[in-house]
Structure prediction request, 251 residues.
Amino acid sequence: MEPEVEPREIPFLRDATARGRSRVMERTRLVPFPSGGVVFDEGDPPEELFVIADGEIEIVWAAPDGSEEIQRTLGPGRVLGELGILGGHARTATARAAEPSNVWAIEREAFLELYETEPTVSVAIASAMAPYLLDADVVAEDLLFLNLEGRVAKRLLAFLDTEGTGVHPVTGTEQMSQQEVGETLQRLARALAEPDQFYAHLDRLALLAGGSRRAVTRVLVEMQRQGILISTEGNLIVIDLPGLEELARPH
Prediction:
């Protein structure tokens, strides 16, 4: 017997009316996937909407050479497949369990009925989708003017201004005052005191840069070789800020 669907486990159901929740819950099932199990394949018709109950799901794209590129990994509460259902097009990537996972599967028509009849649900779903749509616009623009290295550099510069991303500017020069040296050492100490922050954002960096996780990792390794940054305790330390800024400029 499948466990009862709890509205709190499906984010957009929190904004639905009792009647709307009840109708969706009647047409929702919990599906277990073993590690490596396929939720849907690229090219599949959008017959169901999926919400991760527990575990992790990888979004995988097929590269032109036939290899697979993991674009991002999603955890509990994240929604899969909403763009395909709302747009009426086939799946554009494969979703696969990175570990044993349980996923709520909601019938397409049940989701569309809720989306079309309950404005608060529509707003909640649109708000959740907005960052990805904006990301797509930014990526499309940068693809015209920057190579992958330049796009990664540009995103890292943006991460420098965002707390908790694990990217820290610790760039020194011979002209630095004693106060500036002290401030730089303090930033380094903070970076070392908060380990493993950056790698939680690696998937988002890959998404924003328009590259695969593997390709972006290769770029980061090359930046380390060039002396632009170092990786320590799961964080990135930018030791050559002018060099990173140069990489981010169109050439």
Observations:
- Residues 146-247 form a domain with the Arc Repressor Mutant, subunit A fold (CATH 1.10.10.10).
- The first strand starts at residue 28 and ends at 33.
- The mean pLDDT is 80.
- The radius of gyration is 21 Å.
